[in-house]
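Regression test attached.
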Amino acid sequence: MKILIVFLAILLVTGGCAIVQETEQKESSNAMTAAGIPIDNADLEQSLEDLTTLEALERADVKDW
Amino acid sequence: MKLILAVVFVLFAGLAYAAAPEQYHSAACDDLPSMRQRAECRINLDKEYSPIPELCRSIGGGKEGDACVQQHAVLSSCLDRAKPAVLQLECARSRLGISIDSVDEALVACRAEENSAFCIEQVKYSAISFTQFKLDILLSRIEQLYRAGAVKESVAVIYIVQIEELKHDFYAAPTIGGKRAVVQRTIDSWNAFLVLGGLQ
């Protein structure tokens, strides 16, 4: 019984930490200065992903696409 | 008599300067020989004005130069400082006719199109223009951060010049892979700016 309680407690703490970390990451991606000016990179990661897709398309034979 | 004439001259000169300060400043900035000097001059202007975009300046005249100025004109109002970042991106999306979130999804939609090759070209053009606009957002953020006193002038100028150069490299890269590499360099440059500017 004790082992089960300890196991559940560890599970709870680990889960809690994961949620806090995720929230912090989300907050930092929308980080702003005290003057309210955003300092994230204007979603350039999405552009990187988009250009990777287009690059793969460019390399592939478009006829086969 | 000489004193009166001198006073009148100074008065008129002052009035003439006050009547057209924007033209005076913008012309003065655009005429400076180096990009660094122009950047230094522009971030210290009291009023906003529309300079010749550095990218279009480097392209020069001709069809390409005209297309550059035209595209800048279409998207520049989306950079309105009063707009939150999300709305700036939304504005550019709608001007470029981008309705789907990612290129992946847009390409899937192209499969259903009768003229899929044309559709793919459109997706490519929009993705490239939208990415270029994101670099403009970074430039405008550096200016805003400087004006808000969050970063030093020297740091702001270094990174304005660097991002302008990256904008040119992105434009000039002949392949999508080359453009992707420039985007990665821009992300690295932005992270370095945040560290050097003491913002992160």
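Expected vs. actual: identical. Residues 2-29 of chain A form the longest helix (28 residues).
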